[in-house]
Design goal:
alpha+beta, Nucleoside Triphosphate Pyrophosphohydrolase, seven-stranded mixed sheet, two-stranded antiparallel ribbon, 3 helices, 23% helix, globular
Length: 138
C-alpha cells in the first residue's frame, strides 16, 4: 500500500492547496506526496513541502490518518510555521504544460469541505480539527 503525506499549510484563515487542471478537468490537491523507500513520514513532509512550494516548514501536529480505498495510507499534518518564497518546483514544475497545471491557491478554511480535493474529502469534522489545532498552535 502506498503511503502519502498531506500538508495543510495554514495562514490567515486560509489553507494552501493546488488547483489542478489536467486533461480538461479541474480539481484540487493537498500539498504533499508519496513516501520514498526508507523515508520517515516527517522527512517526507519536509521534502514534499520544499519540492512543491519552496517552503521550509516546521511540521505541526498530525490532523488525521486514514486509508483511502485500500490503495494508500494518508498522514495529514497541520503546518503553521514556514518560511521562504512560494514557488513551484520538483516534478510538478517539470511536468507543467497548458494541459497539466499546478496552480497555488490559498483557500478559505471553511471552503475546504466543499471542494473536490485529492487525496480524499475533507469533512466538516476535519475543518473543525484544523481550527482547533490552529488555536492551540498560536
Amino acid at each position: 500500500m502506498r503511503e502519502r503525506v498531506s500538508l495543510y499549510i495554514y495562514e490567515n484563515g486560509r489553507i494552501l492547496i493546488f488547483r489542478r487542471i489536467k486533461e480538461n478537468r479541474t480539481y484540487y490537491v493537498a500539498i504533499g506526496g508519496g513516501l520514498e523507500p526508507g523515508e520517515t513520514v516527517a522527512a517526507a513532509a519536509v521534502r514534499e513541502a520544499k519540492e512543491e512550494t519552496n517552503y521550509d516548514i516546521v511540521l505541526g501536529p498530525k490532523l488525521w490518518e486514514s486509508e483511502r480505498a485500500g490503495v494508500y495510507h494518508e498522514y495529514a499534518f497541520l503546518v503553521t510555521q514556514f518560511s521562504g518564497e512560494l514557488a513551484l518546483g520538483g516534478p510538478e514544475l517539470a511536468n507543467q504544460t497548458p494541459e497539466n497545471q499546478h496552480i497555488f491557491q490559498w483557500l478559505p478554511l471553511d471552503e475546504l469541505s466543499h471542494i473536490d480535493l485529492y487525496p480524499g474529502p475533507v469533512t466538516m469534522a476535519h475543518v473543525a480539527r484544523i481550527r482547533e489545532l490552529v488555536h492551540s498552535c498560536t
